[in-house]
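**Reference record**
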Amino acid sequence: MKITRAIVDEVIELANRCQYSNEQFSMKFFPEGMVLSDYGKYRNTYEYQKSEEDYKALESYLNALEYDVIKDLLTLMYLGRDYLNADDDDLPKNAKKTFQEMRLESNLFTSKSVDINQMLEKSPLGQYLSKGADLLNL
């Protein structure tokens, strides 16, 4: 495993900031739900700029990491997602073994850029990573 708790914590922090600023933008300009055709009208607003800034910070941080670290983060994300709302009885008995098995699945990874996009598309990325880290006792 190439990831450290410090890396996971940084990604969680950036992901949570990204999620928060995106929610602020959406609540202010799209309280009834986002209309993609109207999206461009708000590009000059502070909320949109903040959302983009936070997204780019997360994207930049992920792009600077080695691909093996991205693979570990992606695996951790899926582990956390799969067990996010699980009861204690449903949690894996050996989360590290489950992580390793998932990490070895060749169909889980495509390329660094695609795998980063997989993470960037997940709004609750911070929650997924946090749950995965808790399961692994990172």
Summary: The CA atoms of residues 82 and 128 lie 8 Å apart. The chain has a mean pLDDT of 89.
